[in-house]
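HUMAN: Ready with one sample?

ASSISTANT:
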Amino acid sequence: MRIGIEINGVLRDTLGKIEQTYQKFLIDKTDGIEDDESFEYKMTYPINSLTLNDHFSFPDDDELYSFLYEEFAMEIFGHAQSSEYNTFIDLNEIYISLRDNHDLLIVSDEIGKSKPASLFFLSKFGCQLEKVKFYSNSTINSMWDELDILLTSNPALLLDYPSDKILIKYETDYNENITTIHSIKSIKELDDKLKQILEC
C-alpha cells in the first residue's frame, strides 16, 4: 500500500506558527503607531479553521499571500514546531517497521518559498521518509494518483476525496465536526490504525 502523511496539521503546527509570526511581525511591530491611514492588524479568536482570512486581518489577499509565501515563508514553514513532542521519533519508527512492505511518503500543499522551507522543516526534525510530494489545487489529482491511504487534518481533503482512497483523520480543533471512519489523535496511534486497515 502507498501511505501518504501530510505535513500541515499532522507533522507541523503550521497554524500555531502563523499565529505566532503574525503577532510578532505584524501586530507587535505596528502596535502604538498612530496613523489614521495605517491598516489595523488583528486576530480573531478562536483560531479554529484553515480559512485564514477569518482569523488574521490583511488589507487584501495579495498581502496574505506575501506574508505566507514570500516574506515569512521560512519563519512559518521552516521554523514551526512539530505537532507533538515526539512526532518524528514515532514517525520514523513506523516508517522503519512498514517500509519493507509499504511505501510511505510525505505530502503537502505548498506554494513558492514554502517548498524549500518545508524541506528544511523535515530535515531539521530528522524525517527519514524518502519521498516528498508537493501538490497544489491544480496538481492535487497527481497526489491522489500516488496514494492508497492518506493521513490528513485538512477538512477540505476529509470532505472531498476519491471513493477508492482511504482517509485517516488526524484530530484537531478545526476538523472536530467532521466524522470519518478512521481517525487518530497522535502519530503514535498510526501504526495500530494502519494494521487495522490493512487487515480488513
Observations:
- The domain at 2-13+82-199 is CATH 3.40.50.1000 (Rossmann fold).
- The chain has a mean pLDDT of 94.
- The chain has two domains: 2-13+82-199, 14-78.
